[in-house]
Amino acid sequence: MAQNRVPDTNWVPGSHLGWGYAWPSNRRIMYNRASADPEGNPWSERKRYIWWDAEKGRWVGYDNPDFTLNKPPDYKPPDKGSGDECLDGKSPFIMMADGKGWLYAPAGLKDGPLPTHYEPVESPLINRIYPAQQTNPAAKLFHRPDNLYHAPGDPAYPYVITTYRLTEHHTGGVMTRWLPWLAELQPHGFVEISPELAAEKGIQHGEWVTLTTARGEVEARAVVTDRMLPLSFDGRVIHQIGMPWHFGYKGIARGDVANTLTSIVEDPNSRIHEGKVFTCNIRAGRKEVRA
Amino acid sequence: MMRTQEVQAPSRNGQREAPPTYYRYPALKNPPWRWKIVLYFFTGGLASGAYLAATLADLFGKPEDRPVSRVGRLVALASLAVSPVFLISDLGRPERFANMMRIFKTRSPMSLGAWGLAAFGLFTGAGVVRQAVEDGWIGSKSLPARLLSWVPLTVSGVAGTLAAFFVGSYTGVLIGFTNVPLWAKTSLLQAPLFLTSALASGLAAISTGLPARGEDSPRVHTWLDRTERMAAMGEVALMNATIVHAPRHSDVLKLPKYMVPLRLVPLLSIGLPFILRRRAKRADAKRARMFRFGAGLSVLSSAFIVKAVMVLAGQESGKRPEEYMKSTSGGI
Amino acid sequence: MMSRPLASEHPTGPFYRTLPPPTMHEAALTAGVRIEPGTTYGFFTDTTVCIGCKSCEAACKQWNQNPMDDFGFKGTSYDNTGELSATTWRHVAFVETRIDTNGDHRRDRTRWTFMSDVCKHCENAGCMEACPTGAIIRTEFGTVLIQQDVCNGCAYCVPSCPFGVITLAEEQDRKAHKCTLCYDRMKVGMEPACAKACPTDSIQFGPVTELRERARERLRFLHSRGRREAYLYGVPDAPGAAGGVGSLNCFFLLTERPEVYNLPPLPELPSRRAGAGFLTATAAALFWGAVTTAMILAPRREQREGGRQ
């Protein structure tokens, strides 16, 4: 059934249920009861997706309803019961105990109950909302000689760096850097900087630059573009550098590995490392070759 | 040097600014025509100019012009034997050159040219056979001679002349029939330029070949040299017209690698031959031949420069997107 | 239009086979078009929904098995391909245009526009007119095709294309190559690879007349939403369809000046100049024929120094 190839007609709303297969029951959007208001009608004609058909006594629409099929919107659960019968007809988040989406999480999060703002572990700024608590107190840090962290506002590493993906490569690039048709579309590791930062550091568009953190150094080609905006806080200009992280030293399309720069710090819940944003320094020229 | 985008705001004060380009990537593609095609143009033009002089001398000339016909036909044959070799070897698939004879497309100068070249080859061959019969190399009863005797000299001469004119000039139309700014925007000048250059080079080749055969006659040289000088002046005038008119659309001819050789053209085609030939008049027979030989070579080299610069500079012009965008903007 | 079944009516279960029987009309399913010889087909490329993913470029390379070419970091935005070539028949252009934000650092100061360039399959094709071997033909689907078994690599079509599309494959088979509008796919009822791959339907395939209607409808919609800079390139009486080129079977909806995408605003069909060229050639021929004959016939004197006798 994953090989089904019957698309919906062009220009008609739908979710192409005949094209491929979404486990477990070909449902394309989770919790799609939320596409209808508490009374069971679509929030608007433009947003019509799943709705309650009183005549048929069931939920109908463009997708497989992620809800008990014949539970009406006005269903009230009994005082005693278990499982699905205790969720009322207005609660779309059926895998949560009370059928609601949780903003306040009394249990289950190591850094709950209410989300708030923390600066990343490495940041040029002080946490404006909680100056006394700069970063997430539950973040897992690993203090080792080869995993040094930058202090907040460390002038040696004044620029924010963010890592992101390109369309042409996939994750670490291990599989895509070897494919000629993809490699020619993005052949080399690069970083994107604003013209203001380039002028400040004397970096020419297309030339080599080296980025440094306390963990290591990488070199890449510089793309100087207006798409990168200098940020401004309190009259201070904070520059940001963008770096796609698909590249490595093997394959047809090559470049230095972005993770050389990142530190190991884990999110308390998902244990994913904070490679998305940290601080660094940049200079024109290639890496120095160390003997 | 990395390419950077030039995207400009619309003009504010009504002045026409240079149009933007897409990071200066070329907007046209260049054909891979280099030295082989230059040599094809040169030898083809040479053959047509020599054939013209030989045939017109045959039709209208005096007995003392016999050597001109003979040498002219031989030069035409020699040049034309070599010319298609350059053309065919320049093709991406030389073994398929005969595919050009699959069709006759009046809207394509290259198609017409392929057929024109074939026809011209036929007439050149006919001219050489006539010459061989005259000289006794082939018996007058032999098959080629008898076949030719069916065709009066006037007819084959006139038809051959037309073919020769076509081959000498169509290459100018061919390059004008493209989008390359240098060629397209001076297209009206190119056919006359190439033809004039062909004529000058053909006449020069003949007057170079005559001393080689020891058949110098000062009276022959009168009209040969005068016509060649007029053709050379025409060539210089048309080349200058191109140089003057081109910058409205393309600046490539101003590049030193093209401008320096172009500056030599008047010298090589008019000035130096004039000096050498005056010297030849005063010199003894042997030195006179040397001077005439040098004068002929000088004209030939200037004709070569004209063709080489036009072909190579055109490719340079095709690489400049700002020139192409300007020439296709229609003033908006 | 077919009425589309609701999910509740869609059969499920292990014994329901939705794989359609082999069909000669896959394009009817994927593009809503039944491909028939005798109709002119083309592309409508709507750059306002292009996301610059390059699926079209990759799909074209994969279907036609074209090799990687001109490998190297170019630094021209996210475009490392640069231009169409003998082995690149789809090329996505990345255009960054500055917006005046009056120094407001919080606002984006660029517009990033993408355009998937392709052979325009012109109504009056410069390449087809130039070809001396008859290799370049108009197919039964109205597209311009190079017959690879006839082309002898003379490269005359190359400078004759006003859009710089067709190129000689100098390092490969030394013949001319360009987009075929997937002639081999259309012959078996499939839409071209790039149009099928395009995830946003920026590249739409269909009969040119129908595409033009859709394009005009889209243009009306954009103009009604204030996007007055949008315009069509390559439809009759618009930029791109000028100078004898006629209209372009593969036309575009653009939002910036044509030059910025490397498109000429008013291209010209080169053959328009051939007539005048041959006229000047004839005039020159007559002139020099007359002059040479006059020189031959004129009375001659021995060439002497000074020449005053």
Characterise this structure.
The complex is a heterotrimer of chains A (291), B (332) and C (309). Chain A is mainly beta. Chain A has two domains: 1-101, no CATH class; 140-284, Barwin-like endoglucanases, CATH 2.40.40.20. Chain A contains two helices and twelve strands. Chain A has helices at residues 180-183, 195-201, and strands at 50-53, 58-61, 140-141, 159-164, 190-193, 208-212, 217-224, 231-233, 236-238, 240-244, 265-266, 277-284. In chain A, the strands form four sheets. In chain A, strands 5-7-6-12-4-10 form a six-stranded mixed β-sheet. Chain A has a two-stranded antiparallel sheet with strand order 1-2. The model of chain A has no long low-confidence stretch (mean pLDDT 92). By secondary structure, chain B is mainly α. Chain B has one domain: Up-down Bundle (Formate dehydrogenase/DMSO reductase fold), CATH 1.20.1630.10. In chain B, 71% of the residues lie in helices and 0% in strands. Chain B has helices spanning 35-60, 66-90, 109-135, 143-149, 153-176, 181-184, 187-212, 218-245, 256-282, 285-318, 321-327. Chain C has helices at residues 26-30, 55-64, 126-130, 157-160, 183-186, 193-197, 208-224, 274-297; strands spanning 41-46, 90-98, 110-118, 136-138, 144-146, 167-168, 176-177, 203-207, 231-233, 250-254. Chain C has a single domain, classed as 2-Layer Sandwich (Alpha-Beta Plaits). Chains B and C meet through helix 1, helix 3, helix 5, helix 7 and helix 8 of B and strand 2, helix 3, helix 4, strand 6 and helix 8 of C.
